[in-house]
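B., you asked whether I could sanity-check this one before it goes into the benchmark set. Here's the sequence:
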Amino acid sequence: MSKFERKFGKYAIRNLSLALVMCYAAGYVIQLINPGFVNWLTLNPYLILRGQIWRLFTWILIPPSTGNLFFLLIMLFFYYSIGTTLEHVWGTYRYNVYLFSGMLFTILGSFLCMALCYLFYGEVIGSFGAAAFFQSGAAYFSTYYVNMSIFLAYAATFPEAQVLLMFIIPIKVKWLGIVYAVMLLFDFIQGTGAASIASQLGFIDLFYRVALAASLFNFVVFFFTSRRRIHMSPRQVKRRQEFKSQVRKNPGVTKHKCAVCGRTDESNPELEFRFCSKCNGNYEYCQDHLFTHTHVTGHFGN
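And here's what the prediction gave me:
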C-alpha cells in the first residue's frame, strides 16, 4: 500500500467528505425540482451496457432518503464531520481508497446482480422487460450503505468516542456500531420483508442482499486488515494533529521518526511509520517495530 501511496498519493482528493455532501445536496435539489429525473441517474447495469455510461457516476448524486429537512441537515453534517476526522487520522490517500473502493464494489455488485438475475430469473426478466426489471432494483444500489461503511469505520477507529443519542443520551460509538452491524446482518438474512409481487418472486431480495454486501465489502476488508494499525482514541488524534501542526511550522523537522531505532522517513523513505494506539504519548514507530516495541504508559512524549 505504501508504494502505491507514494506513487498515487498526490492524486488523492482532499476534503472528499465535503465533495460527497455537495453531491448529496445537488441530488436533493434535483429530487425537489424534478423527482422523475432521478430515474436517469440510478445505477442500472442493463442501461449502462446500452450506452448510458453516465450512470456509473450519477448514482452518487442520489442521497440517502429522508423526509425531514432538519434531519437531512443533521445527517449531512454528521457524515461530513466523521468523514473529515477519518481523513485526518488515516490520511487523505487511505480515506480516498476506502471511500472509492466502497463505490467500486457497489458498481461491481450491480453487474454481479444482473448476471445472477439472468441466471435465476431469466423468464421473469422477459415478462417484465429488461430495462424495467433492472430499474426496479437499481434504487438499492445507492449511497446509503456507502455512508454506513463510513460510520462503521469511524466506530472501529474510535470505539471510545461518545455521541449523543437522540441529542440527549451519551453513548460510545462502538455500541452503536455493534447495533448497526447486527441490524445489517439481520436485514441481509431477512431480506426486504416487503409484500410486493417482486419480493414474493425473490429477485428484489436478491438486489437488496447483493447491494448491502457489495457496498459494505470495503469495511470488511478494512476491519480484517487495518483495524489494529489505525485504531486510535480521540485524545491520540488530537496529539497527532498537534504534532503535524508543529511539523508544518518547523519544516526542518523530520516528519516521521521511529522511537525505537531512530530511522526516519528521510533516511529510509521505503519504510512505513505509524503512531501506536496503546502508547501514552506521541510515539511513532517504523513498520519493523510497530508491533514489537514495549508500550509507553508513563508521561506524554513529544
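One thing to flag: The beta strands are 162-165, 169-172, 273-275, 284-286. Otherwise nothing jumped out at me.
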